[in-house]
Amino acid sequence: MKNKYSIFSIIKNAFSYNENWQRAWRDPEPKKEYDAIIIGGGGHGLATAFYLAKKHNMTNIAVVEKGWIGGGNTGRNTTIIRSNYLWDASAGLYDHALKIWEGLSQELNYNVMFSQRGVMNLAHNLQDVRDLKRRTHANRLNGIDAVWLNTEEVKKFCPIINTSPDIRYPVLGGTLQRRAGTARHDAVAWGYARGADAMGVDIIQNCEVKGIKRNGDSVEGVETTKGFIKTKKIGVVAAGHSSVIANMVDLKLPLESKPLQALVSEPVKPIIDTVVMSNAVHAYVSQSDKGELVIGAGTDAYVSYTQRGSHDVVEGTLKAILELYPIFSRMKMLRQWGGIVDICPDASPIISKTHIKGLYFNCGWGTGGFKATPGSGDLFAHTIANDEPHKLNADFNINRFVSGDLVDEHGAAAVAH
Amino acid sequence: MGKTKPFLDFQNDSTANDIKLALREGFKSIEHVKRYTTTGMATDQGKLSNMHALGIIAETAGVKMGELGTTTFRPPYTPLTFGTIVGRNVGEFFDITRRTPIHDWHVENKAKFENVGQWKRAWYYPIDNENMHEAVQRESKAARDSAGILDASTLGKIDIQGSDASEFLNRVYTNAWSKLEIGKCRYGLMLNEDGMVYDDGVTTRLSENHYLMTTTTGGAANVLSKLEDYLQTEWPELDVYLTSVTDHYGTVSICGPNSKKILSKIIPDLDLSDKEFPHMSFKNALIDSIRCRVMRISFTGEHSYEINIQASYAKSVWEKCFEAGKEFNITPYGTETMHLLRAEKGFIIAGQDTDGTMTPVDLQMDWIISKKKYDFIGKRSLYRSDTIREDRKQLVGLITDDPKEILEEGAQIVAETNKQPVEMLGHVTSSYFSPNLNKSIALAVVKNGKKLKGQKMFVPMENKIINVTITDTVFLDKENKRLNA
Amino acid sequence: MFLINCPYCGERDQSEFSAGGEAHIVRPKQPTELSDDQWAEFLFMRKNIKGVQFERWNHAHGCRKWFNMVRDTSNDKIYAVYKMGEKPPTK
Amino acid sequence: MTRNLRTANSKFIDQTSRISFKFDGKKLYGFKGDTLASALLANNIHLVGRSFKYHRPRGIMACGSEEPNAIVQVGNDASMTEPNTRATEIELYEGLEASSQNCWPSVNFDIGAINNFFSPLIPAAFYYKTFMWPSNFWKLYEYFIRKSAGLGKSPTEPDKDIYDHRYLHCDVLIVGGGISGIIAAKIAAKNNLNTVLIDDKNILGGTTLFQENECFKVNNSYSNEWLKNEIENLKSLENLTIKTRTSLAAYHSYNYLLARENLTDHLDINEKKDKIRQRLWKIRAKKVIIATGAMERPLIFNNNDRPGVILSSSIKKYIDYYGVKCGQKVSLFTNNDSAYETAISLNNSGVNVNSVVDIRDKANSLIVKQAEKLGIKIHWKSSVVNTSGYKKINSIEIMKLSDDGTTVFGKKIKEECDCLGISGGWTPRVHLFTQSGGKLKFRDEDNVFLPDKSGLDQISIGSCNGDFELDQIIKNSVRLTKKIFKN
Known about the structure:
heterotetramer, A: 417 residues, alpha/beta, six-stranded mixed β-sheet, C: 91 residues, mainly beta, Folate-binding fold, four-stranded antiparallel β-sheet, two-stranded antiparallel sheet, globular
């Protein structure tokens, strides 16, 4: 059994100079066969494994990761968590996730530092106001806390925003979800990995999937750099590389993979105590517990797997930041990076079975997958275990692109795709 | 190592012991160690610490340093001020501001402006201490009772020429264009390939192979790009040339029962009779020897003209119209009044009453879909299993039981009030108090709305529930009598 | 930030261009005869290749011409550009 | 206390033009040519900041962009203050006001230092293991964590300064104006190529500029004299543009680079007004030559972070370039030859060098022999195992190293000192190369990563390419530069 982390274990280990901490997870070699294999050791993949083991008693499973766990978009995002989505289907999905977030540190016995400091979305023109009010009303009726703030209330909630009526696109108001906030992204992957490992899940790093073996319409296993592993169920959660895996079985997905950039400033003392997003002026910002301003930039419009976007995107984002926060002009960009996000035409994800038996896809989260991590894992685990979607992810099937029953959330993303 | 403090990352205070702790806990990859201990993540980005961190990892794991690999060095090399990255693109240079050629007149006449895309549009013109509501009530009443004048210069304008121009329009709009007579105007809906309404506007046939298309203000650039894309990549065989002329012309729109009299004062030699110059037609004309195009088209339901004139003359023509209209109490009105007037007539605004999920059928505009045309952009998508569903959300009118109660745009509509969770059937897209009808009116999209006319519905607000009734989308002058008044 | 060789204008900075996705997806000539599945294939399904991809670009802030490009999406190396209607290079 | 820590012999400091500035509210003086760091050291101020987590006293440790400790807040004005600025990169100007960060009430007496006593309770990543109970208390815990995090303070009013962008197209961009960059610039410009040479310092020359020792000669001249002459010759080259105070920020694909030029940061406070403060150069270069040099590595031992523990090469720069003594009784700890250069420079300036602690068995290079000849004491095969002194180092403990170098044994030798120079070898600055997408290779002999494969038209030359010996640097810089122009 694992040592439980507690204030006492901290002290005990302090006396032994922290030399007795147990491994957070094992480092096993792959077995010959598993009941299910999750491709992708990011937050969503590890959460899927965790809930397969915890809720569906599937413990003879493995997560295979081509690099190190949490090294993809889990470790590259701006950590924003919110559930103020417009459509019922999305609201159901993201609020399910938010509710899990609220008890996640306790559930995992690992502090993921979920900080409900609120997320505010700003309106800069009359159509923004209509759209955001529409969302606020829909949220309220869906049981999601959301309130409309007028310009003065926006200013009061976040005093450093430039709310002058004389700027190019003045702030006309905004919506606030107080239960929303941020979490420590790496800790989410590590916490789920530790939890899944404790229940017997094999987490196999540095193990790249090279092919998927099929027998007719069913999957039989995966070819990896560590050899062939037999399984009847494969859950693909390889954000950024979903199409690469899909192409292994000649499956085309409605996805394009594009570089999404983010940056942080040097750390400073607390100056902004919430998350502020602006769609029209195209920027979002929060401050990490370390003091860095965490700023999300946009996606480039071309397909790229390089994890590097163009400088124009960063420049455009900081332009918007200085428009809304002119006090940040002398702040310095410390680090910028890119991740690869796969984007669906309707800006909503896919959590779905496919026409190939035993093959499941969880992808297309675009710029906003981190917030859904626990919910996505839970619902994907349900879908894999039962070979049927949970009612909360039924609308996020692949078939919607054929029928036309899309979940168009373009208005919900801070940055238009 | 005991109780020692051999520092590795001096700024973030991580020690060699911290690295070993991370390794013991199973964080083996250099990236994991870095993130777990924050080594190398301070403002010097590990310039001094990274190599030692690697060394300790290699030593502890018993591998060669070269096999571990480095972490990625990301830009910038040293921290860079946001100010430098942004340069001069701050304040007034944050984004360009587009102003119409008549802008100065609006400023002189105390207009309040709204941002529409990059444009500054006159929103309303308060007199004395009027608030927006009061100004809009006055403006819209004046436009219906006598005459109103609107700066419509921001509408996108695309000049379309070539021997295949008609065929081109056939393919991009849902309705048919080949038979449109020269000198006539027609309203068109443009869809995305997914069948959803994308943009709309009136297009005029100037001559056999020459059209002038108008688009929404916000959609102009995207529509042009989209049309160029189809022309160059899908239909290169078509002989069509597109030119954006939005900035070349100013557009003065005068409407109201006295608009004809005003126009006749300005262009006395133009025959304005309904026979010679009927609704949805166009004439070339001269104003003080300046050539202009006059369209008799209407977005308000009133008898109305749009004068398109070279941008540099637009302000003088506007002033001329204003002078000529003074005896009729011509009243300048802004976008807010324009929105109100069109809502009274049930005319949609693409982007306000549509949101990328509405088909023409959903808008109850089935009439605009040509049954004869073999294909047009988006046609196939209209016949998918979800788009042919009868109970999709459809555009309807709403009136409040209390005629004084103005609904909030964006408010949700439900059929029941005591159920939890409650099913949202739709939302209010446009809402105004109509001075001409003396009651509150609204447009909304409601699930299965087409069949629910006359049904009672509820709009639950935070602190109250508003009772409403679903109606037809046209609130005023259903017979279109005013167009020829 | 790529340097793109517009087939009409020559080398220009990436910021002058906009990307238009996968190339050589021909709009069906008879959409009405396609099944919902076939139409969805045209509308939404993409190869989204990691590696050498044929794609469309537009010199939006230049000649406004569309053209095709062969680019390796795994390292952003551009191998060729060619005009609309021209055959893609085979090598 | 006014101890004279200035030597009279710096060629780079104008001791006739005195500059007044304030640090933590105290008025101090320095000279034109100083950095804030060199001026503080000249005033015998070592303690300039507190560390992030344990609030331990920290001093100036380096002399350039790698400085981890001496991070200060510049200016008090709500709109013009700048947090997290490296004292080692701030050129001293009249009216400069700087203050320590991350300490309260002052850098000398910092309440937060209590964390240092609790440090066994807060190992790396301790956050993840605690603060979970009771579950709704995280908000409260976090409040205190946030308060204690962060270094400097953000401005609270809009910036009044102007910033600018410009484009630059060239045949060759050379990054780094040290000896390699200068060699490359000459070859490029003489090849009739439109050449741009940038360097982040205010003058060209790198470290060779103050390398005055008979061990380092080029064409029978001292290397610094030779280089000075070469720099002089560059001025007559028509195709060459030189940009100093220009730091390369980012190297993107397709040889697209961003560089920041500082235009007013070094000017007196009343001369800055209405001028463009910084300019971002957006550069497209046909070829890029990276000549960014190398950084000295610290050494890892117990309490290696005390004020007064300074990179050995930085001590050398402070004495030879700025004419500033980092201490009066200096010990050095090294695993390579470069600390001996520092020892000799200090010795020549009349600073008492206690000893050089060298983990190696022996070394026979010219420079080591020179040091031995000067009578500098060397502890061979030994290691510094600990230091004392809270706000400034006052002694070190030295022990013998075992044969395999993994343990220490014997008697602890205590050596009093007021400064310890450390030298753990050199790290090539390969940052720009990797930013551009280049792949690195590892050299086992001296544990360095070196540029390997790149998809772009670029080369790395000099010590950023792993050449650390003068003759190697010159020979390979010439060879590689000529080679890139043949392509």
